[in-house]
Amino acid sequence: MAGVTASEIEGDKTPQRASAAPLANCANCQAPLGGAFCQACGQSAHIHHSLLHLAEEVVHGILHFDAKAWKTLPLLVAFPGRLTRRYIDGQRKNYVSPLALFLFMVFLTFFVTSFGNGQLLGRDANIASLTNHAASAKLRVERNERALDEARKANTGVAGVEKALAVSRKLQHEAEQRLLYVVSPEKANGEEAIALREPGWFDKTVSKIASSPPNPNANFPELEKTFRHAAENPELAFYKLKNTIYKFSFLLIPISLPFMWLMFFWKRDVTMYEHAVFVLYSLCFMSLLFTVLIPLSILNQGWLIGLLVCLAPPLHMFLQLRGTYNLGKWGALWRTCMLLLVANIVFCVFIVLVLMKSLH
Fold first, then answer.
1. pLDDT in tens, 22-42
2. Alpha-carbon distances of 317 from 258, 310, 341, rounded to whole Å
3. Which positions ≥6 away from 4 have C-beta within 8 Å?
4. What is this structure's pTM?
5. How far apart are CA 197 and CA 204, in angstroms?
6. CB within 8 A of 47, min separation 6: which ones?
């Protein structure tokens, strides 16, 4: 180990430029060359020193990844068990490694979420949806006004209801401005017209939380206070939430491995490495599914989102379990049910921890 470390430190003592004549020794490890590539480390015997070759290496790397991706992604979606089993058995030349694919999918997921504010609806559908949203905002204002009257009569919780009423009135004004901007852009307020768009399910949920009066009988008052504070400034809260999930998403892997072991602990031929590959490819598919759901949520395709969320994960888990571990239908079925339960528990715990850390 010391020799290797010393050779790495002293590596800058080797010649930095290649002469026109062929090299007798590898420029990387100094092993004798016997062909176009070094037999010890695999580096090319011919060393390039041109900007054109640098660009060529970049293009080659991109195309090489794409070639692997085109073979990996279809199997990941349609035949996850076959992909996982092949990688475990050593057929890795043509596929993206699970860890590299997981890191790429995490990046892709949060890259796509940054475009979640785009306007994708047609004008007529947009007007209809905005009209419904403005009507809902008006109803919340009326409900909070009645709640304020009742709170003043009871002389309790007035401050909280007043704050909720102020927020609901602000949200009603924004909803009306969104509608006015689509119907008659010239009549909308110039400053408020910036980034006016059709609110998706996330915006509607945040508005509902922020404009609802405080619940004095809440089981977890601190958690409700945290969510309400985040709903009052959703842009900042969502930004902090995305960053926290991005940083700690890798924790899903070690959290999931013990549960995978519990489902196969009596099988001596199943190793933790196989579970790790299984979990990584499974998380890759879930990330890919999430990136598909984002544009669907912007398009307000709630029925399609519900269909995909209900059917895609269990079907994918069943196929991957059966193909990876060579299970029968019954063995794969009961493990799928257990894995769904475990996945929901792990995901809920992970989200709550992330929320508590990012929103404080």
1. 557 888 888 888 888 888 888
2. 17, 12, 12
3. none
4. 0.60
5. 12
6. 17, 18, 23, 27
Question: Do 179 and 134 meet the contact criterion of CB atoms below 8 Å apart?
Answer: yes
**Residue 338 Cα distances to 259, 318, 325, angstroms:** 9, 11, 15
Question: What's at 65, amino acid-wise?
Answer: F
* Residue 112: alpha-carbon gap to chain centroid: 9
**175, 134 Cβ separation under 8 angstroms:** yes
Structural tokens at position 129: 């949806």
For the CA atoms of the chain, what is the radius of gyration? 28
Q: How many CA atoms lie within 13 A of 300 on its CB side?
A: 17
Instruction: Give buried/exposed letters for 341-352 (b at 16+ CB in 10 A, else e).
Output: ebbeeeeeebee
Nearest to 201 by CA among 310, 311, 106, 294: 294
User: Domain coordinates of the chain in residue numbers?
Assistant: 123-214, 240-358
DSSP helix, strand, coil percent of the chain (3-state; round to 5)? 70, 0, 25
Start-to-end CA span in the chain (Å): 45
Distance CA(304)–CA(323), nearest Å, equals: 27
Q: pLDDT (tens digit, 9 = 90+) per residue, 116-161?
A: 544 444 455 556 666 776 777 788 888 888 888 888 888 877 777 7
Burial class (CB in 10 A: 0-12, 13-18, 19+), 6: exposed
**CB within 8 A of 33, min separation 6: which ones?**
22, 23, 24, 25, 26, 39, 45
Q: Say how far apart CA 6 and CA 233 lie, in whole Å.
A: 54
Mean pLDDT calculated for residue range 268-287: 92
The crossing angle, in degrees rounded to 10, of helices 51-78 and 80-88 is: 120
Three-class secondary structure of residue 235 per DSSP: helix
